[in-house]
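Annex B. Sample input.
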Amino acid sequence: MELKQLLKDLRYDRITGDESISVGGLCSSASAAVGGDLFFCYAGTEADGHDYAGKAVENGAVALVCERELDIPVTQIIVADGRAAMATLARTFYGYPDKSLKIVAVTGTNGKTTTTYMLKSIFDKNNSNSAIIGTLGIAYGDIFISPELTTPDPLFLHGVFADMVNRGVEYVFMEVSAHALYFGKTDGICFEAGIFTNCTQDHLDFFKDMQSYAECKCKLFERGRCRRAVLNSDDPLGAELIGALPDSVSYGLENPADTFAVNVTEKIDGTSFVINISDEIYEINIKLPALHNVYNALAAATCAKILGVDIDVIAKGLESLDKVPGRLERVANYNGGDVFVDFAHTPDGLEKSLSSLKKLCKGNLYCLFGCGGNRDSVKRPLMGEAAARYADFLIITSDNPRYEDPFEIILQIEEGVKKSGKKYVTVTDREVATEYALNLLNPDDILLVAGKGGENYQEIMGIKHSYNDNTVIKRLIS
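Annex B, continued. Sample output.
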């Protein structure tokens, strides 16, 4: 594409050099640059892309998008925000593929992944060609792309959208994280619907306070970003958004809502309830346990309904979903005790999973968990408190320690546990901790292995080692 044509939607300060050059690709990694590429420079949280522009040009980049003029003899487009420019130009370069798709965004601290999986299951029953983008990866047709980020960067995202259009995809259900909204990854996309699940403490290492974190979540519902808003009336921020968005639709269990559930019955192998969607009533039995999955089901059902899916198809879709990998997934039974793996890595997420399992547990409830390194350290004692509130015995271990000392992270979690007087052990090696926890089980006990969910790695000192809780548990049992 000719550079001048590519820039037609972009607001920029000035251009130095030739606007008639041909651009063959877009990139933001200097090492990945090839001949004909347009390279994006912006100041990141850990590195500044401007420092790598020379390397990108050496590798073949023919032009730069940058936030300041560089002493490099190639065409340069000077912009105020390199990330925002990247989102705009990616849409243009790939021919605005998002306009040919009906895209639903799901944002919130917890529940994003499960809600997208529920939506895909519903639309599969509706004979719609649909796709998922999120924490567990990207899936459409026979294509699966391993996860890197919850919400991919614009250059990759719009390239995937373009391929989806070529393969006949109609609907895309994607997780949109607060980080993605902060960095403008989805700028320019008008979502068919935006779902808000909840807002509880997480990522304060980045956002610093809950108000800043909440404000980022709210960006999804700014004018022009989504046609309809689907909001949780039982969440304080959700209730606030309902008041600000008169055309929104709501769901909930405690406060008035357009969609709600009654006669909720929780079991170890699933949950049944009667759903009411704007006075249409249907009995539903999902195979996922816990009350928070009722909320996820209400969110997915409400969204599907406003997109034109009949209630009986919604019910069939919800009931046909067997599991969501690593989301309160029942993975084994050992010595008569049930073993669950869950992604719960926030105080609220851990509390919701444990409180639901506590109601179902006839014996002892055990919880194995840790906290990630180089992330929100304030939540570590809160995680300890949340776990101790419901579990009978705790096994505190490593999650993804990254560049931190695992034992120091465990010490911070202990601060919260000690307040309760609950018994616990600390085992730094996660696999050893898992073996120890499994050997505690007796009939009617439950073990929750929390924090990593469906992740296939453990990150230690910059290296991602192969590790999956489900796989480790099954190997140890065998």
